[in-house]
Amino acid sequence: MNPTKTERRRIASSLVDATLTTGGMPEGIDYSPVAMMPDVRVMKIGGQSVMDRGRAALYPILDEVVAAKDKHKLLLCCGGGTRARHIYSVASDLELPTGVLAALGGYVPRQNARMLQMLLAKHGGLFILHDDFEKLPLYFRLGCIPIMTGMPPFGYWEKPSQGGRIPEHRTDAGVFLTAEALGVKRAIFVKDEDGLYTDDPKKNPKAERIHRITAKELIERDLPDLVVERVVLEYLARSTFCTELQIINGLEKGQLTRALEGEDVGTIITR
Amino acid sequence: MTKLVTGDGRTHIESALMRESLVDRRVVAKTDSEKEFAIMPDVVLVGIGGQSIFDRGKAAVLPVVDELRELRAARMTTKPGASKPPAMVLGVGGGTRVRHTVSVALDLGIPTGGVAQLVGAMEEANAVFLNALLAKHGSIVMQREHFWELPLYLESGMLPIVISIPPYHFWEPPPEDGPLPTHGSDFGLFIHAEVLGMKKLVFVKDEDGLYDRDPKRHEGAKLIPKITLSELLANMPDELIVDRQLFTSWQRARHVTEIQIVNGLVPGQLTKALAGEPVGTVIRRTA
After folding, report:
1. Do A165 and B32 count as a contact with CB atoms less than 8 A apart?
2. Helices then strands, each counted (H, E), chain B
3. Do B238 and A155 touch (CB under 8 A)?
4. Which of A169, A170, A195, A198 lies closest to A252 in space, CA to CA?
5. A chain contacts of residue B213, beta-carbon cutoff 8 Å
6. φ and ψ at A167, to 5 degrees?
7. Would you say residue B282 has pLDDT above 50?
8. Which of residues 51-90 of B touch A (CB under 8 A)?
9. Contact A88 B17 (CB under 8 A)
10. Helix axes B96-108, B112-134, angle to 10 degrees
11. Is the ipTM of this complex over 0.95?
12. B36 in contact with A at a CB cutoff of 8 Å?
């Protein structure tokens, strides 16, 4: 039998003849995506900004988490911090590729998530893996506080970075993408500053806090440094569900609670 | 000895990136390098098409299986002076079942990340098909978490079949255009090769290579025998035989220098490609 004369065995569907590499909306499909769990509060606990400060910073934040847990569905995602920086530094020195850095960098937020789990265990803290994501409805129904790494699961499959080797998708990106996957409108980032300022507030006392800014304005400012990972701003411009990031100061008592109530504390970055 | 640094309320480990913002371009630039370490440079990644090969059934699949078997036997030979093909890592595409999955999922309103979560299952089925046919010639379907066992399989002369779809799953970044996930199996195999420092990928499809238009729809489509990545990006065909994302990421890659697309329906093309012959389409990263 001549294989060139053998037809591809195809399943009839609206995409049977489509070139899936073309992009755009496939013809004949009326697409209206479903938000899976829009009422979950997806929040990131900063690595360097919170975890590395230890008990003094973290305990009051966890008190607010515990106080809110019966009112809201809370999904905690962890940042890395100084140990992740140490890993990236050593791995870069060894000339290892970005994908390996991403896989190695993933160990630290996982440790932080496990620490949070131990501290929150008696309140229903539950360490979960990416593979447990589909069980979130069960965990929430049981009144648990699922805790996971902020890193997206890309690992070795992380793309090479532009102009350096540090993976572009780290814990900010992972938290944003978690919110987007769940259909959540706003991702909350618990850090150690009251959001975003016109200049570095630690150096310039006249620096003013920015209450609200669009991702586009932020990108146009072309700052060498930014409050969140660059890819997050890029994705924010084209996301379906997650259209706002809220950066709050976890060191200010009550800010997290107000943010969980939907108040515009800190800085809101919108599309 | 490494120092712990305190004093600003946080505990830092001394390192070149200590206290730094990893978002700062100036900091990131310090980690740039042109001499990145290549982990397994002499291995070639071979991707076998889903629609193009597997969906055609026996008539197309068995000759490819035969060729893989022969290539492996040639590699294992102890005959002195025999030229040996390179070690191979295999990957497979999902084919028409992926299209059906996406079509149903979009109609149901499954979000992009959800679609990305679903599609990998269909290619895993093709990996099992291939493994069933090649098992007695040393193939093995590798689980993702067995990533670092690759040297074990290759050193012992096995034919590892890796999961092609990258583990982006629910975390698929929002696509630039439309709802379809853009990090597909061709991209996944590319990035697999790149992170391991491989120099070459071969995609086995059912056309003689890359054309300026889809040759299945356009009579006069022209084959592109040889092209550089920049030439291709400057004049990108609308209909591509491999994922667009692959080419975008390739621009930043440091290891993969060549991607060859060959016709799996023509016996011997894969073997020639592995021997370095310019069959099909050869895309080079630089001229």
Report:
1. yes
2. 9, 12
3. no
4. A195
5. none
6. -55, 140
7. yes
8. 51-52, 55-57, 59-60, 63
9. yes
10. 160
11. no
12. yes
- By C-alpha distance, the chain A residue nearest B256 is A160
Q: Could you give the angle at the alpha carbon of A170 between the alpha carbons of A166 and A173, nearest 5°?
A: 130
Residues B271, B70 contacting (CB under 8 angstroms): yes
Would you tell me how many other CB atoms lie within 10 Å of the CB of residue B8?
12
- Residue partners of B179: CB distance under 8 A and separation at least 6: A25, A31, A33, B106, B112, B115
In tens, the pLDDT along B181-205 reads: 999 999 999 999 999 999 999 999 9
C-beta separation of B71 from B271 below 8 A: yes
DSSP-assigned states of every residue in A23-81 = -SPPTT----PPPS-TTEEEEEE-TTTTGGGTHHHHHHHHHHHHHHTTTSEEEEEE---
| Closest residue to A152, CB basis, from B171, B188, B191 | B171
Residue whose pair of structure tokens reads 């990545």 in the numeric block: B229
**Phi and psi at residue A246, to the nearest 5°:** -120, 125
For B222-259, what is each residue's pLDDT tens digit? Answer: 999 999 999 999 988 877 888 888 999 999 999 999 99
CB B119 within 8 A of CB B104: no
Nearest to B137 by CA among B164, B156, B163: B156
Tokens of B93: 């595409």
Structure token digits, residue B108: 């149901």
Burial class (CB in 10 A: 0-12, 13-18, 19+), B171: buried
- Evaluate whether B91 touches B45 at the Cβ level (below 8 Å): yes
Q: Assign A1 a pLDDT band (cuts: 50, 70, 90).
A: very low
Token look-up 């490609």 returns B273
What letter represents residue A160's amino acid?
P
Backbone angles phi and psi of B278, in degrees to 5: -80, 60
Within 8 A by CB and 6+ apart from A193, the residues are A49, A201, A247, A249
